[in-house]
Amino acid sequence: MKLLITGGAGYIGSHTCVELLEAGYELVVIDNLSNSKRASLDRVMEITGQRLTFVEGDIRDTSSMTSLLKAHSFEAVIHFAGLKAVGESSRLPVNYYDHNVGGTISLLKAMQAAEVYTLIFSSSATVYGDPETVPITESAPLSATNPYGWSKLMVEQVLSDLQASDDRWSVTLLRYFNPVGAHQSGLIGEDPNGIPNNLLPYISQVAIGKLSHLRVFGDDYPTLDGTGVRDYIHVVDLALGHLAALKRNVHRPGRHVYNLGTGKGYSVLEMRAAFEQAAERPIPYEVVARRPGDIAACWADPSLAMQELSWSAVRGLEDMTIDGWRWQSRSPNGYED
Ligand code: NAD
Ligand code: UDP
């Protein structure tokens, strides 16, 4: 079965490509390499011993996307491509709507032209805004507090309307919680540009000595130790969630929505302590003011994915931190090494 993977050179996309190739799928990846390196796909091929086809291109280019989709017989598209930095999205909202919303609409036009009607979309737990209760189920109220979050909600709406208008479509919205860690080979992992915004990449760079200390954004939240609590999920478990969703929903018309999380939350200080153990070195920190827009606690109720997809996350905190550290320590400069 042949698949088109948009944004497949990125962090989650590359890990998903490994699992898909190992499961026997044939892959074409399109990526404009704006936030990734071609080397990630070379590593994917090295890990799996299988080949994939890479096309450097932009999903907003509808005519090239249409030609690409028509040139192959794809059964489905897994759509990772997009911009993802929350802070940057407030500074550059038009860019975010252009890539995330405009890019998706361009992809959908090309899929319609080529008559490919199965799509799996990378959504996010950010669509739950500041949740009233945890754990969060898929039926919780949706909202957004920044342009990135709005772009995900808008795409969910576009896809839902499309599916409601044409029953040939199978649309799967995967709401990721906090992906962390790396493939256990240590050959692929997260390779952020500049100073990382997210907790785990930041901690890793403190551990490797690139950054002096972690700044903990607030210790006065109503959580066990006052620091923010999130549902961290190993990126390989997340990748396997795509396989499970694909197997069940390919050519199954409908709108399918799943939380992909572990169902368990950890605080910032718990993550710091776990990483300290994995890396066997101190991670100094200081507590600073809350980060604007942050919420206290967010973790998933992942039971729907278990029921419908027979999928659940099986890798624990130790796997997340040990695998993350293996990647960071092998490649302090990411794919440049
Ligand atoms: P990433 O930046 O590593 O991967 C995204 C890829 O898309 C990159 O390789 C980038 O070069 C490519 N890209 C961006 N705009 C493009 C365009 N217009 N045309 C073609 N390629 C384009 O990010 P990731 O962490 O792998 O995230 C993948 C998806 O999952 C994104 O849609 C993101 O919003 C979503 N998501 C990520 C997280 C997270 O914490 N990493 C959480 C929830 C949802
Ligand atoms: N965080 C922190 N210092 C950092 C980065 C993040 O204390 O340098 C905290 C943040 O306030 C939140 C948690 O770590 O409570 C996870 O943040 P991240 O940006 O990784 O994910 P998100 O906020 O998008 O869930």
What does this structure look like?
By secondary structure, the protein is of the alpha/beta class. It has a domain of 212 residues: NAD(P)-binding Rossmann-like Domain (Rossmann fold). The protein is 41% helix and 18% strand. The protein has eleven helices and 14 strands. It has a seven-stranded parallel sheet with strand order 3-2-1-4-5-6-11, with helices on both faces. The protein has a three-stranded mixed sheet with strand order 12-9-14. Strands 7-10 form a two-stranded parallel ribbon. Bound molecules: nicotinamide-adenine-dinucleotide (NAD) and uridine-5'-diphosphate (UDP). Uridine-5'-diphosphate binds next to α7 and β8.
**Distance between the ends:** 34 Å
Q: Outline, from the CA principal axes?
A: globular
What proportion strand? 15-25%
- Radius of gyration (Å): 19 Å
Biggest sheet record: 7 strands, parallel
CATH topology tier name of the domain at 2-183 and 232-261: Rossmann fold
User: Which CATH architecture of the domain at 2-183 and 232-261?
Assistant: 3-Layer(aba) Sandwich
Total DSSP helices: 11
By CATH's scheme, which homologous superfamily of the domain at 2-183 and 232-261 applies? NAD(P)-binding Rossmann-like Domain
Main-sheet strand order equals 3-2-1-4-5-6-11
Small-molecule binders = nicotinamide-adenine-dinucleotide, uridine-5'-diphosphate
> What is the helical fraction, as a range of percent?
40-55%
Beta strands, count: 14
Order of helices and strands: EHEHEHEHHEHEEHEEEHEEHEEHH
